[in-house]
Amino acid sequence: MTGRRPLLVFVHGWGFDASFWNPLRAALSEFDDLAFDLGFLGDESLPEVPAGGRRVAVGHSTGFLWLLKAKPFAWDALVSINGFSRFVEGEGFRPAVAPRLLDRMIARLGHCPEEVTADFLARCGSREKPGRLNPERLHEGLIWLRDWDARAELDSDSTPVLVLAGKRDPIVPVAMTEHCFAANSRIVRHWHETGGHLLPLSAPAWCARHIREFFVNA
User: Fold this and answer.
1) Which of 4, 37, 111, 210 lies in the 20 to 30 Å Cα band around 50?
2) How confident is residue 52, by pLDDT bands cut at 50, 70 and 90?
3) Mean pLDDT of 213-218
C-alpha cells in the first residue's frame, strides 16, 4: 500500500470508549484518522468516513469483530489488534471462550454492570475505572461476543490484513488467534512476546511500527 498515507479508522473493544486509542493515535500522528465510539461508556459516535483515498479499518478485540459484521464503510485494508473473527467455542472452533461464561456475564450485567465491567477490565490488565456506563449497549456487546461468527466475512474479504497479537493475552490466547488468522500472502501476523490484551495501551510504539511497515510493504 505504497503511496499516499491512508486514513486510519479506529474501533475499540468491549468496555472501552474511543479514548482507548489516544496513545496509538499519538504514535501515528503522521496519519489522518478517525475513531468510532460504540457507546459502551456513553454515547455512540460513528463519524462519517470520507469518500475517496485509501481507508484502513483498525479494530481492537470486539471492535474487529464488529467491523467484520457491521461493515460500516468500504476499506482497503484491515488491522486486527488483539482481535478475532469468533469469540466462543463451537463445532470446529476450539480453543475459545465457553458460551456459558458469556451467559453468566450477561446475567450479572443486569444486576451489577459496574462490577462486571470492572472485573473484565481488570482481567484485561487495565487499572482504569470504567466511566459512565451504558448498560444496554454493554449487554448488546456481550450478545455480539456470544452469537457472532465472522469467519466467513473475513475469508471472503480480499483486502490485506495485519494481525498484531500478544503471546500473553489472557482474553485471546495464541491458539485462538492462529485459528482465526491463518498466516498467508494476505494475512500478516506479528506477535508481541510479552504483550497482553491491551497492546494499543501497553505497546503503542510497537503497534505503530508494524502498522507503518505494513503500509510500506503491502
Assistant:
1) 210
2) confident
3) 78
Residue carrying C-alpha cell 462490577: 115
Cβ–Cβ under 8 Å, residues 154 and 180: yes
Rounded to an integer, what distance in angstroms lies between the CA atom of residue 44 and that of residue 138?
Answer: 12
Q: From the DSSP assignment, how many helices (H) and strands (E) are in the chain?
A: 9, 6
Check whether domain 7-217 has CATH 3.30.2010.10, yes or no: no
Q: Where are the chain's structural domains?
A: 7-217
Whole-number pLDDT of residue 2: 46
- Give the whole-angstrom CA distance, residue 95 versus residue 62: 17
Which long-range contacts (C-beta less than 8 Å, at least 24 apart) are formed by 172-181?
172/61, 172/82, 172/83, 172/84, 172/197, 173/95, 175/95, 176/84, 176/95, 176/96, 177/84, 179/93, 179/94, 179/95, 179/96, 180/83, 180/84, 180/85, 180/86, 180/151, 180/154, 181/80, 181/85, 181/154
